[in-house]
């Protein structure tokens, strides 16, 4: 069998499993370590975006957002991730150039994982939401430039990436704004939004299911045989699921919620200020959190801690004082039901208030952004459902990027050549999912604060509009061949709705910093990867 001598100075058969020797085993081990760290970075930064608006709108506590994100992001990566990881390891440049230089390609994949990992962890520490896809693409480009300079690069793909810096947030922001304006017109602006909200509820449930079913069926993996379903079959199945869901909501949930919310609608007192609504409370209530927590007094709609500034509280909150109780906000409702995850050491670890946002949120504009209690109740389950589907789709389309280079490493190690025709092993997808989960729980709070709290105040109605608009944009763009980032879409929707509601509630300086981070991502990861590659080539 013909052999070739690599830059490592070792002769190896280029198409033989005997490549699994000590000369390259260290690269495979390094690749597994770096891939796990990259998955942690993706979990802390990219994955955190999925539930950031749910936490910001206070429909979920941070611990429960992490639980749901861990489950559905990992499930999406395992069930839908093979397709995307194949693109990452094959579509950036012509891997055929490395035929006979398999060790060089393996070393490059290790450097790519390292470059993307370093950048994502740095961005997470700075609380900047950046694209995981762009990070790994830039890192792949970096090591290739060191070896082959400009030869074999898919420049068209990089042109799309540059365009997506501007296209993603604009498209998603426009779609989310349209949804929010329509919902505000037909529900929020009504003096009594209960009946208008109940009338449109089945439609929005159906729409959420239709969009997400189409996304899952079209991008489904071969292992589930979803790829054999024709387009017309996908449409029939998706619309069928959506219509059935809408009918269930109309006949069963709407009558039940009408009874539950009727009293709340009649007794709620709130004041409108232009498009912003403020809820007033006259009852004094004391909430004991836990032995390790604090006692808080609620007086006239303000929650006050000892020696601390006042923080606004919504009326529709599940607060109890002795035997009596009042109807409550999505935030404290979940705190009551799942109290053990929101008090004591969990509260300190996962629900630590952002001191950076305290002074900003004391402004009148920020304090006055509230939903009518009825609107908040109606939109809360919609937002949670949208976030769950978004996490599943995000896991399939973005999170699997962490294991793209690792799969390339494993394929070369196992087959002894650069042939990348084999599929992505499921166990590697599960391995990446474990790293994602750990990163989310350890560092996810930082980016969640930026997207969910610091850019603009988010309510259940605006949060639902953000989720639905971003999902619709990603689905539309991916099916007409425009590669866009889910991170960019989510941030664009958050800022656009904040602008529609009131420009005073958008932190424009923070948004500009985020855009700069987006633009720097590809060159930064390329530079880090190239530096690692050049250094290792010199040493080895």
TrEMBL record:
Q: Offer one Pfam family short name for this entry.
A: PHO4
Give the UniProt keywords, A-Z: Membrane, Phosphate transport, Transmembrane, Transmembrane helix, Transport
Q: Which GO terms describe its molecular function?
A: phosphate transmembrane transporter activity
Q: So which domain of life are we looking at?
A: Eukaryota
Identify the InterPro entries for this entry: Phos_transporter
Compartment(s): Membrane
Membrane topology designation: Multi-pass membrane protein
TM annotation in the entry = 24-47, 59-84, 104-124, 136-155, 161-186, 198-218, 224-254, 426-444, 464-489, 510-537
Which biological process terms from the Gene Ontology are attached to this UniProt entry? phosphate ion transmembrane transport
Q: Cellular component GO terms, alphabetically?
A: membrane
State the protein's purpose.
Sodium-phosphate symporter.
Family of this protein: Belongs to the inorganic phosphate transporter (PiT) (TC 2.A.20) family.
Query: Per its record, how is this protein called by name?
Result: Phosphate transporter
């Amino acid at each position: 069998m013909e052999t070739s001598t690599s830059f490592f100075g070792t002769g190896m058969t280029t198409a033989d499993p005997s490549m699994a020797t000590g000369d390259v085993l260290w690269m495979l081990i390094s690749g597994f370590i770096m891939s796990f760290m990259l998955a942690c970075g993706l979990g802390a930064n990219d994955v955190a975006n999925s539930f950031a608006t749910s936490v910001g709108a206070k429909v979920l506590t941070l611990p429960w957002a992490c639980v749901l994100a861990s489950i559905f992001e990992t499930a999406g990566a395992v069930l839908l991730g093979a397709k995307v990881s194949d693109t990452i390891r094959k579509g950036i440049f012509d891997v055929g150039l490395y035929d006979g230089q398999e060790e060089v390609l393996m070393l490059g994949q290790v450097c790519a994982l390292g470059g993307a990992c370093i950048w994502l962890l740095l961005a997470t520490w700075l609380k900047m939401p950046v694209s995981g896809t762009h990070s790994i693409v830039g890192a792949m480009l970096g090591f290739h430039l060191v070896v082959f300079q400009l030869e074999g690069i898919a420049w068209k793909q990089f042109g799309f990436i540059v365009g997506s810096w501007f296209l993603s947030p604009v498209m998603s922001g426009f779609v989310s704004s349209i949804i929010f304006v329509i919902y505000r017109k037909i529900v929020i602006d009504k003096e009594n939004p209960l009946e208008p909200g109940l009338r449109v509820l089945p439609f929005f449930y159906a729409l959420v299911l239709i969009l997400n079913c189409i996304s899952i069926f079209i991008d489904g993996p071969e292992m589930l045989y979803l790829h054999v379903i024709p387009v017309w079959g996908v449409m029939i199945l998706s619309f069928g699921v959506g219509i059935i869901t809408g009918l269930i909501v109309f006949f069963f949930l709407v009558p039940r919620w009408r009874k539950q919310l009727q009293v709340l609608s009649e007794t709620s007192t709130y004041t409108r200020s232009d498009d912003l609504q403020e809820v007033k409370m006259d009852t004094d209530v004391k909430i004991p959190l836990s032995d390790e927590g604090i006692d808080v007094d609620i007086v006239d709609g303000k929650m006050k801690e000892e020696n601390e500034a006042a923080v606004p509280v919504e009326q529709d909150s599940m607060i109890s004082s002795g035997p009596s109780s009042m109807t409550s906000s999505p935030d404290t409702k979940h705190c009551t039901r799942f109290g053990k995850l929101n008090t004591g050491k969990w509260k300190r670890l996962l629900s630590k208030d952002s001191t950076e946002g305290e002074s900003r949120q004391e402004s009148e504009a920020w304090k006055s952004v509230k939903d009518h209690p009825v609107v908040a109740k109606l939109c809360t389950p919609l937002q949670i459902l949208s976030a769950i589907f978004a996490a599943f789709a995000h896991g399939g389309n973005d999170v699997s990027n962490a294991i793209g280079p690792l799969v390339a490493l494993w394929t070369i190690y196992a087959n002894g050549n650069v042939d990348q025709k084999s599929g992505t092993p499921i166990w590697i997808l599960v391995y990446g999912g474990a790293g994602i989960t750990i990163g989310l729980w350890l560092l996810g709070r930082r980016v969640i604060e930026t997207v969910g709290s610091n850019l603009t105040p988010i309510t259940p109605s605006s949060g639902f509009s953000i989720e639905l608009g971003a999902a619709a944009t990603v689905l539309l763009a991916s099916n007409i061949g425009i590669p866009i980032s889910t991170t960019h879409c989510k941030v664009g929707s958050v800022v656009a709705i904040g602008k529609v509601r009131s420009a005073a509630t958008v932190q424009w300086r923070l948004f500009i910093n985020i855009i700069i981070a987006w633009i720097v991502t590809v060159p930064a990861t390329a530079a880090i990867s190239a530096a690692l590659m050049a250094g290792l080539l010199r040493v080895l």
